[in-house]
Amino acid sequence: MKLSRPARVTLGTITIVVLAVIYLPLLVVFINSFSTSANLTWPPPGFTLEWWGKAFRNQGALNALGTSVQIALASTAVALVLGTLISLALQRFRFFGRDFVNLLVILPIALPGIVTGIALNNFFRTIMDVRLGILTIIVAHATFCIVTVFNNVIARLRRMGTSLEEASADLGAGVWTTFRLVTFPQLRSALFAGGLLAFALSFDEIIVTTFTAGAGVSTLPIWILDNLFRPNQAPIVNVIAVVLVLVSIIPIYIAQRIGGQEHVAK
Amino acid sequence: MVGDQGLVSVTERDVVAPPRATAARRISTFLSSHARARLALLLSAPLAWLVLVYIVALAALLITALWTVDSFTGEITQTWNLDNIIEVVTGSLYQAVTLRTIGVALLVTVVDIVIALPIAFFMAKVASPRLQRILVIAVLMPLWASYLVKAYAWRSVLAEGGLADSVSGGNSPGYGLPATIVTLAYLWLPYVILPIYAGLERVPNSLLEASSDLGASTGRTLRLIVLPMLWPAIIAGSIFSFSLSLGDYITVNIVGGANQLLGNLVYTNVGAANNLPLAAAIALIPIAIMVVYLGVVRRTGALENL
């Protein structure tokens, strides 16, 4: 299929327009983070660095950021282990109930967050009788993060095939040695990409978090929701959003580099 | 490349140095000859987690929906009855909100797919590898900006006297269902673009060339070659946008005016109204909708494309 020049130009134009629409609200947020108006009137009456200074000294926001990073790291770690195990099981074996297990992995992300939230809230409070807190958030987040690791790893396993692992076993390597020296190095970048998505998913999650956080625990999204409609805090929220987008470039860039190199290597 | 290095080290380690008969070695030998044991070892931890945490929680939710709240004490009484379910299925409020929620979720999904298709196609089949990488980053990056901040940005864009008003000459849709649909479609767009892009990447260029060499027009190639191969990826994207819209209550609070979706009803009943059984019964509606949806799309192979 050879696309005509007008078709290519049209596609390119649509892409540019949509990207512009995607970034326009982010641009508004960026500009508002410098606005002298505390209630975000448009256009900004003047510009100031006041909010940037205040954001970096805001103890509530910094604490919430710390909590969010802690939760995202822990749930990503759990998701990496469980996601890798389950994708190895589903990709390398045929067994009864395989479809059910596959559905089980997808369900926590395929069901709306409010369902997962209320189900886990009810489970923790009435069945397990545990106090809601950081630990319950981690359990909840890990549950729906498994699928992002699973998707990346199983796609890689499908492409890898089993010949290298078989060669390793034929040469006398045990199960563990083969995994450590043959399987794992090939999975590394898929694990990184899956882990990155899991981290992002956990870091920004608000609905399930609201239901599993309990009083007193504030993740960054919860802090943002609490402060979004307060006149003197809204500009600080804008600063935080801008910082998050800018910081996110680093891991996404690394993931792309790793992916790109493997593309070239093949 | 990476695999080759791994292979070299295996040879050095285990053929040159003879293996010692440690306990670990014995377990390894046992495992390499017993596939079932290997499978059990792989599957037990994740399966236990998912069943113990998630399936048990869903089952408990179903049971809770069958209980009632004592209107006097506010305590849950564990008497089994179908009152909540019947109220949710027959109550006109719930029917209206369910239909509205399904409508919003469907529209958001359609809007997202229509926007995602040309972009994903441009990324996968027109852009140079370098531009492709930049575009993937450009699509991924907004995912890191807080969901709340993006919804709030749309609130200020759609506000009275906001950007939409000044651009359209005072004809901004304002807050309401259209604003909710626009904002949700905006929020979930990357989740729809990425699987469709990945799906298009898997369509080999050689197939497209063969089709055009055999005389098919571009439209015919798209319809008969690309679309059938892309279908699972499109469905996969739609699962995200549909399910995420189905359970949302925060965006509609921020830009939806007085409108309520199913999520709002669940949220109010858990919190302010303190009626967990009724909230559980309402939550069964999106579960039922998603189970039907997943059941229908399972055959397309979409679940492997999520």
Overview of the molecule:
The complex is a heterodimer of chains A (about 270) and B (about 300). Chain A is mostly helical and about 270 residues long. Chain A has a single domain, classed as MetI-like (MetI-like fold, Orthogonal Bundle), CATH 1.10.3720.10. Helix content of chain A is about 80%, strand content about 0%. Chain A is built from eleven helices and no strands. In chain A, helix 5 packs parallel to helix 9 (about 205-215). By secondary structure, chain B is mainly alpha-helical. Chain B folds into two domains: about 1-65, no CATH class; about 90-305, MetI-like fold. Chain B is built from 14 helices and two strands; from the N terminus they run αααββααααααααααα. Chain B has a two-stranded antiparallel ribbon. In chain B, a hairpin with a 6-residue loop joins strand 1 and strand 2 (about 75). In chain B, helix 5 packs parallel to helix 9, helix 7 (about 145-160) packs across helix 9 and helix 10 (about 205-215) packs antiparallel against helix 11 (about 220-245). The longest helix of chain B is centred in the middle third of the chain and has 35 residues, at about 90-125. Chain B is globular and about 75 Å long. Chains A and B meet through helix 1, helix 3, helix 4, helix 5 and helix 6 of A and helix 1, helix 2, helix 3, helix 5 and helix 6 of B.
